[in-house]
Amino acid sequence: MKLLTHNMLTSHVKGVTKGYPLIIKATEVKVNELEFNAQFVSRMIPKLEWSALIQAAEWLGQSQDLPSALIPDYENDEEFLRKVHRILLEVEVIEGCLQCPESGREFPISKGVPNMLLNEGE
Amino acid sequence: MQELDQTVTIGATVPTGFEHTAAEEVLEKLEATARVSKNRGRIYFDITTDKLLKVHQLKSLDNLFVVEEMQIDWQELANKLPWTNALEVWKLNNSIKKKKGRRKRTNPTKSDQCGNVDAKSTDTVPSDPEELCEDLEALEVKGNQRDVSSQPENYSETEKHSEIQDQESGVTPLKFRVTCNRAGDKHCFASNDAARDFGGAVQEFFQWKADMTKFDVEVLLNIHNNEVVVGIALTVESLHRRNITHFGPTTLRSTLAYGMLRLCKPQVSDVIVDPMCGTGAIPLEGVMEWQNSFFLAGDNNGTAVSRSRSNIKHILKRTHGGSFSGLPLDIVQWDLCNLPMRSSSVDIIITDMPFGKRMGSKKKNWELYPLCLREMARVCKPGTGKAVLLTQDKKCFLKALSQMEGLWWKLHTVWVNVGGLHAGVFVLKRTAVVFGTTPEDVMEPHTATGSQKESMKDGSL
């Protein structure tokens, strides 16, 4: 699971209103190389919940001096964009789980795939 | 082998309904204008032979053939046709195929129901593609006049130029067969007759030997009313199974998946979700061609998820040669009717919805489709979001869609033939209306299904 995906996932346990962002508890993390595209990253940034991304990076120990708030004119800062590229697409959680911040319900991640299925009645 | 720079007409079969998207791809990548033929499911275009390799790399095309001529009086065809050019192209193509064939053999496909596009009568039943490849290699050995003990396992990786040279020296006659597709009301012959008679003429003209299973040259005879197209096949195995090695019960053809993806025109940084991905045919095709978008594939079924994962691993091994070890794609196991995603986070939703035949049931669709459409509307960006949805259960889909006019509007529909079933690809645009404010989704879900159950009683299902 990449952090870009994590940025869009939320808990949908019944009755939960503050299910975002899901807490990441990782037991195995991998870094894969992906081709860098500056335009992709700079266009993706406005679509993200930036604070959730920083939070996720911290949980994985991958903060790498990413700012907690976006700097103006980030589109032209290639070094910054490369850092964001790495954290969005190259860092992957292979094993672990995602935890709903409100209910505590845990969703396992296995072989890079989170299982978000709920049981009957949840 | 001499480089021929002649112009040749290539014909290609494409998923019926996607002739125009295929023509777009041809124009974009080969700079050739394609003609969409009256035979639905076929396009024709002219290229110079140096572009032949690129033709094989196109993603909308199922099968390729080189066209010789389009004539009306088919009886005298064999003698009049300019075979030389076409055969030169066929030889050139063979050297391209040999290189591809080697790679494909190390990844045997679990040969499944290889669905053919047209339901027209074909004269011969294509044998298993894997077997054909092996037979071609066995024939090659024969051409060298050595003792044939067909041992495909011992096939080596070395380049083989010998096949072409041996045939040019005229040692062994080529083997061929004729495959005939016929459509039209006024013919007094069946495709069998046409194939046989034409085959006889070809045999006499060339002194080739006819062989149904172990052939070098496949001559294609396409007759549509009073128009005849003769071609020589360039593909042994349809190009459409390219990405999938792990099939599921309803795996979508890659060419069809590609056609659907072209319809949504993915842009840089678009988030594209397939919430019922099955074995991942659509997201995989997407990530190969549109590397600047992000694909999210989801399914509720654990087996489907693990098959998708295997298919991705296979793609990674095959492409990039190890320089990049990741793809802009993720898989999640989830329930489509209750997506664990933030609202308005998705740019494009693209999926192959259960038809209710091999997967699911028509009855289930009546409940599933409205829930799907609502949840998709929630996660899709208002105003800019799009959905491209394939389904055979058109009645149910359209009914479900009409119940949420506030959220989606229909842009257009492409009618396609999927494994003999008449299906529709519906292209929808998400309206600017924010989810949770229209009367449709304020309405209780069970009231909606209640009224549907009543209309079910008339037995139309």
Automatic annotation (TrEMBL), chain A:
Q: Which residues form a coiled coil?
A: none
Pfam families named among the record's database cross-references? Trm112p
Give the subcellular location. Answer: Cytoplasm, Perinuclear region; Nucleus, Nucleoplasm
Which Gene Ontology terms of cellular component type are present?
A: nucleoplasm; perinuclear region of cytoplasm
**Sorted alphabetically, which SUPFAM superfamilies does this protein's record hold?**
Trm112p-like
GO terms for biological process? rRNA (guanine-N7)-methylation; tRNA methylation
Q: In its keyword annotation, does this UniProt entry include Nucleotidyltransferase? A: no
A molecular-function term among this protein's GO annotations? protein heterodimerization activity
**Record has Cytoplasm as a keyword:** yes
The alphabetical list of record keywords is: Cytoplasm, Nucleus
InterPro entries on file = Trm112, Trm112-like
Q: Into which family does the record put it?
A: Belongs to the TRM112 family.
Q: What is this protein called?
A: Multifunctional methyltransferase subunit TRM112-like protein
Q: What is the lineage of its organism?
A: Eukaryota, Metazoa, Chordata, Craniata, Vertebrata
Automatic annotation (TrEMBL), chain B:
Kindly give the InterPro entries that the UniProt entry links to this protein. RlmKL-like_Mtase, RlmKL-like_Mtase_CS, SAM-dependent_MTases_sf, THUMP_dom
The UniProt keyword set, sorted, is:
Cytoplasm, Methyltransferase, RNA-binding, Transferase, tRNA processing
GO BP terms, alphabetized? tRNA methylation
Residue span, THUMP domain: 137-234
A GO MF annotation of the entry reads: RNA binding
Q: Which species?
A: Cyprinus carpio carpio
PANTHER family attached to this UniProt entry: THUMP DOMAIN-CONTAINING (PTHR14911), TRNA (GUANINE(6)-N2)-METHYLTRANSFERASE THUMP3 (PTHR14911:SF13)
The protein's name in its UniProt record: THUMP domain containing 3
Q: In which residue ranges is the amino acid composition biased (Polar residues)?
A: 146-155
Q: Where is this region: Disordered?
A: 98-129, 143-168
Family the entry assigns: Belongs to the methyltransferase superfamily.
Family annotation (Pfam families): THUMP, UPF0020
